[in-house]
Design goal:
By secondary structure, this protein is of the alpha/beta class. The chain has four helices and six strands, in the order βββαβαβαβα. β2 and β3 form a beta hairpin. The longest helix is centred in the middle third of the chain and has 16 residues. It starts with a strand and ends in an 8-residue tail after the last helix.
C-alpha cells in the first residue's frame, strides 16, 4: 500500500489497487482532506485505465472525509458513468456515511457496507444491504 504523509511526516493516506476478472478494487485508508485529496483523486482515476467493467472503492478504513474528498468521489462517479464502468463505494464508517448523507451524495452513489456486498451487487444478485 502506498502511503502519503502530511507536513508533520506522519502517514495519513494509504492507497492500494488490485484487479480480478475486470473488477478493480481501490482500497483507501486514513484521512482524505485538502492535503491528500489530490492523491486520492489520482488513485481513483488510475482505476479506469484498461477499461475495467467495474470499480469498487473501499473506504472502510477512512477515518476522515473532507469536502475535497467528497468532490473527488463525485467527479470520479461521473467519469466512471461516462466510461460505462459500474462504480460502488464500500464503507460502514459512520464518519464517511454521515458526510455522504449530509451532501446528498448517498442518493447518487451505490454504497455497500462490505466488499462482498459490492461484489454481490455487481453480479446482479439481490442483497439486503443498500
Amino acid at each position: 500500500m502506498r502511503r502519503f504523509g502530511g507536513n508533520d511526516g506522519r502517514d495519513r493516506l494509504g492507497l492500494s489497487t488490485t484487479s480480478k476478472a475486470g473488477v478493480v478494487l481501490a482500497t483507501v485508508s486514513g484521512e482524505i482532506d485538502l492535503a491528500t485529496a489530490h492523491a486520492f483523486a489520482r488513485h481513483l482515476e488510475s482505476t479506469l485505465a484498461g477499461a475495467p467493467s467495474a470499480v469498487i472503492a473501499d473506504l472502510d478504513e477512512v477515518t476522515f472525509l473532507s469536502s475535497s474528498g467528497l468532490a473527488a468521489l463525485q467527479i470520479f462517479a461521473h467519469a466512471a458513468n461516462s466510461a460505462g464502468v459500474a462504480f460502488c463505494l464500500v464503507s460502514a464508517q459512520r464518519t464517511v456515511l454521515r458526510h455522504l448523507q449530509l451532501t446528498g451524495l448517498d442518493r447518487n452513489l451505490t454504497i455497500k457496507p462490505t466488499v462482498a456486498g459490492a461484489r454481490t451487487w455487481l453480479s446482479g444478485k439481490p442483497t439486503p444491504d443498500r
